[in-house]
Design goal:
The protein is α/β, with parallel strands linked by helices. Helices cover 26% and strands 19% of the residues.
């Protein structure tokens, strides 16, 4: 009887392990998780200085503390919930129409869609940055629900987009459903190394995908694009972290130069980019979803956002990575308040448009109405 009991327990454990394994295999096979780079691509990655022992790395090691004693208090705090981590009411966005998205050769402008999604109009071209139009920031319908009921415009109503730029493959920056809907509206997709594998699995023609390494550049439609460093990470699915590169981007027109930071912790790369390619008329730099514990080295505190803008030799700062999802436990509007305070002390010009509001990239047309205070 005792021997049969041992055999039964061992069989049960084996069945559970098999079910866990099959569940992981099934989950990783879902299209929302994208695709891993092929062996051919991985062999090409060997030419990159950033690809070390099969993974991409930032040149200066920063310890992200995943120890249980560090992460457990953070997780408990998030589970407990901060009543001010989300607005009390759904955010009202400024709706825009297709006709308002002009292709003016004279004016450069930016329209912020919340979090890191932005639309830039430059030299008659329309550029979409990290397009996430989903209701949730997670691959499934749980966690990270958007603050607003709708986006300023639906993907179906967008005009043709000349270039989509992707900073990295995390779900709140690369959204499966959004890319599927954009598939026939975009002329070119510019992505860091490896991210193209996801797009190909989702039906994007490889000829429309351009993958770049840090410091590489490409020219399309009269604009110059440079892939530049960021201090972050990558990964979709359950396994396989940092198999694709992450980046910031420089967009250069005839008279206007824009820096898009994607996600990044503070590091010396900002000064290096500023010295090589600054000054910038506009910088879009992350300012939210931070925590002094755990993952902090991979994100910036708002005061570091202002410092990074200064080192980039930026003219006008648009803080991003806030205003749409709660991915940390701080108050939802704390990032912009801290940025404005630090910017005032450092004499930095900041624009803080309502979601859906278009701002010309010039210091003569700042948007500083504190809409977030009214709607908090």
């Amino acid at each position: 009887m005792g021997g049969n009991g041992v055999v039964l327990k061992e069989t049960l454990v084996l069945v559970i392990l098999i079910l866990i394994f099959l569940s992981i295999v099934f989950l990783n096979s879902l299209p929302v998780f994208g695709a891993r780079p092929t062996r051919k691509k991985k062999s090409q990655f060997q030419q990159s200085k950033n690809f070390v022992k099969g993974k991409f790395k930032y040149p200066i090691k920063s310890r992200v503390d995943y120890r249980l004693k560090v992460l457990l208090p953070v997780l408990l705090e998030i589970m407990k919930g901060n009543p001010d981590a989300r607005p009390k009411e759904k955010l009202q966005v400024q709706r825009i129409t297709k006709s308002l998205l002009s292709r003016s050769m004279d004016k450069a402008s930016v329209t912020w869609f919340g979090h890191s999604t932005s639309l830039i109009q430059l030299d008659g071209q329309l550029l979409l940055l990290d397009p996430v139009f989903a209701t949730y920031s997670s691959p499934f319908r749980f966690g990270g629900r958007r603050y607003s009921e709708q986006m300023p415009i639906e993907i179906e109503d967008l005009p043709e987009i000349d270039v989509v730029l992707i900073s990295h493959d995390h779900y709140d920056h690369l959204d499966y459903q959004s890319i599927k809907k954009l598939r026939n509206k975009v002329r070119k997709f510019l992505v860091p190394l490896g991210v193209g594998s996801h797009l190909e699995r989702w039906g994007i023609d490889p000829e429309r995908i351009v993958e770049l390494d840090w410091w590489e550049e490409a020219q399309f439609y009269g604009l110059k694009f440079r892939c530049t460093p960021a201090k972050h990470g990558s990964g979709r699915g359950i396994f396989g972290q940092n198999l694709t590169l992450w980046s910031s981007w420089i967009i250069e027109g005839k008279h206007t130069k824009v820096f898009f930071g994607g996600d990044s912790g503070y590091g010396p790369h900002f000064k290096e980019i500023g010295e090589k390619y600054g000054p910038f008329d506009l910088t879009l730099i992350e300012a939210g979803q931070y925590d002094n514990r755990g993952w902090w080295p991979l994100h910036m505190l708002p005061e570091e956002t202002v410092q990074a803008h200064i080192e980039l030799r930026g003219n006008l700062l648009l803080p991003i990575h806030w205003g749409a999802f709660s991915l940390a436990s701080h108050d939802w509007n704390e990032p912009i308040e801290r940025v404005l305070k630090a910017a005032h002390e450092r004499k930095v010009s900041v624009t803080a448009p309502r979601i859906g509001e278009t701002v010309e990239i010039s210091l003569s047309n700042l948007s500083r109405t504190p809409w977030w205070r009214v709607e908090s």
